[in-house]
Amino acid sequence: MKLCVGKDKGILTLSVVLGAVSAVAAAFVSIILQRIVDVAVKGDVDGFSKLIIGIAVYMVALCLIGFAEALCGKVLLRNVTRNLRDRIFQGVMGKTPEEYYRSNSADYLSMIVNDVKLIEENFLVPLLLSVQMVALFLATLAILCYLSPLITVILIFFLLLMFLVPALLGKALQKRQEAYSEKLAVFTAKAKDFLSGYEVIRGFSIGGHILKKFRRENRQTANGKFRADRLVAINESLADMLSTLSIVVVVFVAAYMVLKGRITAGTLLALIQLSGTFSTPVLVIMQNFPKMTGMKPILKKLEQLCAEEPKTGPDKEPENEEAISFDRGLELESVKYGYEEGNDVLRGVDLQIEPKKKYAFLGDSGCGKTTLTKLMTGYSNRYEGSIRYDGREVREMNGRQLSSLISVIHQNVYLFDTDIYQNICLDESFSEEELRRALDRSGVAGFLDQLDDGIHTRVGENGNRLSGGQRQRVAVARALIRRTPILILDEGTSAVDQKTACAIERQLLEEKDLTLITITHHMQEELRERYDRIVDFSA
Ligand SMILES: Nc1ncnc2c1ncn2[C@@H]1O[C@H](COP(=O)(O)OP(=O)(O)OP(=O)(O)O)[C@@H](O)[C@H]1O
After folding, report:
1. Where are the transmembrane segments (predicted)?
2. I need a surface site. Which of 97, 238, 360, 450 has the fewest CB within 10 A?
């Protein structure tokens, strides 16, 4: 609950109050019906015309309250879903890289899209409705007690029967809702995986095979929802049956009371109308209560994510904190690390990286070169040994401090679906000169003329409108413009032709003030001697 309406208590209170007022006003219609029939039976024409004016005023008031209540509810839903999505996104971005990569990105996507939608439909809307129904129920109960205590007792008896049903089904429904949410996350992950693998699917003509897999996942997900819906259907039909039965009994008893002259015809009509609105709120609460309790596991999961103290991100990292220097260098001492416990990828690495020198990391595939550079950039705090920049341990530094020291150009470049300029600057401001320098040195300047909109050309989803080499040059420009003292090139020119790769690498090696670490499988012979040190990790 706190997760949903933390900041919106005011609007929640207003929605609840307006909902209650509108429900009480709606219950009052039974008294109006009673008066109309009794005045008509008595043949009181004067009283009849007065009633018409009263009814007109009542209808206008009912309409205005109903509108205000509906509007408030919509504002509440907009605010809550918006804040919830913000908080989930912030929670995900606040994870350390190690934690972030433990889950599939589609799981996060599913939380932001599917779980928030489930919370809106199965928790917030039912919650508002239930509050309104409680008010309607209490108002109806009060009028019923006033008109006929006997009918009230009969209705309460049916009410207790109606409460038994959701109490019996609630736990089972909760389990099925949870299973459905998990299935939905898996389905989203699979669908994302298939769509991202479009090129592979097409290239290897495995469309039929993938379609089968998709259908299987889709069927299982739809069945998961159906299993939960089946219980909802049982719940709803039992409740409907009890509600109808209660009205039949009430009409029967009330008609008998009219026969005996204990109540008027107007009261009979009011009682029939009230017995409908007496069971309706209970019915609605019964249908919605299991939905709300079924959301508990999802709310708990999101609460945990949102409650976690962000470990990185803008809230954690003040803008004006002390910058970390890189004058003495980077020292790695007995660094040990494994992604899984008991399975070390790095087993005691000692290394000294001096400022402004150029290093090449070589070694067999899978020997841990990338893992070592990931630790240098704050991927995990679980490493043993020490990694120190000018004597300052990496695990004591935050993301902003680290990214002011070090940039990485990865083998798999990620470009946002915006233009080249924004992919290079990433919302930071740089001078014309800084931009020009980065464009020239990365080689981006060389292909901008071929594009219709130059630097403002949109790159498409993950840069698919650019060639692999162009994407990599944009990534090089993105790293160079920041002028961090250290640059890691992790197979960062593997998508460009040998001549261009060589040119980019040579350019970087010529940057006198730059400390360069290149991870490569194919050391260009002509560049080998330009490196100050070749570190071979296979040894
Ligand atoms: N996120 C991860 N979770 C679990 N294991 C991982 C993860 N990333 C890498 N590994 C494993 O760690 C080992 C070292 O991987 P790493 O990427 O550091 O090697 P590398 O030397 O850079 O290889 P390459 O030259 O092929 O890029 C590999 O066995 C790999 O399977």
Report:
1. 12-33, 53-77, 123-144, 150-169, 237-259, 265-286
2. 450
Please list the residues that pair with 349 across neighbouring strands. Answer: 335
CATH of domain 330-536: 3.40.50.300
Atom 9 of ligand 1: nearest residue by CA position: 371
List pLDDT tens digits, range 57-70. 999 999 999 999 99
What fold does the segment set 2-307 form as a domain?
ABC transporter transmembrane region fold (1.20.1560)
Name residues contacting ligand 1 (CB within 6 A): 101, 339, 345, 363, 365-371
- SS3 assignment, position 319: coil
How many angstroms does the Cα of residue 366 sit away from the middle of ligand 1? 5
Dihedral (C-alpha) 292, 294, 299, 302: value to the nearest 10 degrees? -140
In ligand 1, which atom is closest to the CA atom of 491? 27
ipTM, 2 dp: 0.96
- Could you identify the atom of ligand 1 that is nearest to the CA of residue 521? 25
pLDDT averaged per 10 residues, the chain (length 539) = 70 88 87 89 85 90 92 92 90 86 85 91 90 89 92 89 77 87 89 80 78 93 92 85 86 92 91 84 82 88 76 52 81 92 88 93 87 91 92 86 87 85 88 92 88 89 85 89 90 71 84 90 80 84
Q: Name which residue sits closest to atom 28 of ligand 1, judged by CA.
A: 366
